[in-house]
Amino acid sequence: MAKDKSGYIIAAAFIGPGTVTTASVAGANFGFHLMWALLFSIIATMVLQDMAARLGIATGKGLATNLKDISDKPAFRALFAVLIVAAVGVGNAAYESGNLTGAAIGLDAFVSIGTGNWAMILGAISALLLYSGKYKVIESVLVVLVIAMAVVFFVTLFAAGPQWTDMLSQAMQPQLDVDTITMILALIGTTIVPYNLFLHASLTAQNYAGEDKAESIAASRKQSVMAIGFGGLITLVVMATAMMAFFSQAATMDASNMGQQLEPVLGEGAQWFFAAGLFAAGLTSSITAPLAASYAVCGAFNLSQDMNSRAFRSIWMAIIATGVIIAGMGFKPLSAILFAQAANGLLLPVVAIFLLVVMNKRELLGPFKNGKASNLLGALVVAFVVCLGAYKLVSLF
């Protein structure tokens, strides 16, 4: 059996600065009233990532290639290719700006030269790491740093004496209104990341090539549920620590004081540790986002998916450059990160609908096509996110 770690790579990819920031803001501003949105996101992520992984293993191809091959007609194939590029390209550019901004906030806490300047430096570092072709080694180191930060959040949560009764009471009083809709979309967008569907399918297609498909799918599913579940638990703990530090308190959370939620354990060192973790999370995600975009676009246009090919490199370079430009345009850090997550929430239905279509192709997947349960869960996810997006648009007018 292949030594596949794609489930953990996916979990590491969505535990980026967007997750830390979004969960912190949600906990600080709304307490546990939005816990339902996070739980929905975790379950939905498991469902959709399972489909993507199963598709990659069963066909030996990435999601983009399979989506483009839905129809034999040239016009439809071209349309799908354009839609893939639009959805993943635009989404990843927004996401990349959030990743770079989050990491830049972390570094600026150590050496203050401005988040825009740090974003340029981080973009260059990400480009060099991808150009080397050794991204997995670097990613593994950064994942360890993110896990270390997660451990501190866990310790802080229990050391601070959490108000379990208050948490349960708030969780049992879910909120969904004009004031919370952007935050809900951000929580969904930071957990169910569209580009992770493309990345997961491509990784499993490569890592399980030549293996028994049924056994591979079972192994991949078990690993994904554990990894994504752990990632969701980390997000929940971040939300809880922010809730205890800021919700219903006089202090208001912003980019400069997010680390205060760690002070019960780390004291004055909390801000620095939080900054280091935010940097690690941001750099990890700023590598995986352009990587996924390269897999998706190359698959859509039948280009080489070799990391050293010119086309593959050109795509991730364009994503990183766009992210650096957006990050350096002077948006408020928290606003830029939350916008990136909300944009992902709005782009999700586009990718998910296409995934549902291809997962029902019996001639393509045979016994590994979607069953009734997968289709029902997938349809519910898409319908809910579409309704949220429509509600958000209507509320603007």
UniProtKB/TrEMBL annotation:
PANTHER family: NATURAL RESISTANCE-ASSOCIATED MACROPHAGE PROTEIN 2, SOLUTE CARRIER PROTEIN FAMILY 11 MEMBER. It holds the Pfam family Nramp. Keywords: Membrane, Symport, Transmembrane, Transmembrane helix, Transport. This is Nramp family divalent metal transporter. One of its GO terms (cellular component) is plasma membrane. It comes from the Bacteria. It is a multi-pass membrane protein. The chain crosses the membrane at residues 7-28, 34-53, 74-95, 107-130, 142-161, 181-203, 224-250, 270-303, 315-331, 337-356, 376-394. The lineage of its organism: Bacteria, Pseudomonadati, Pseudomonadota, Gammaproteobacteria, Alteromonadales.
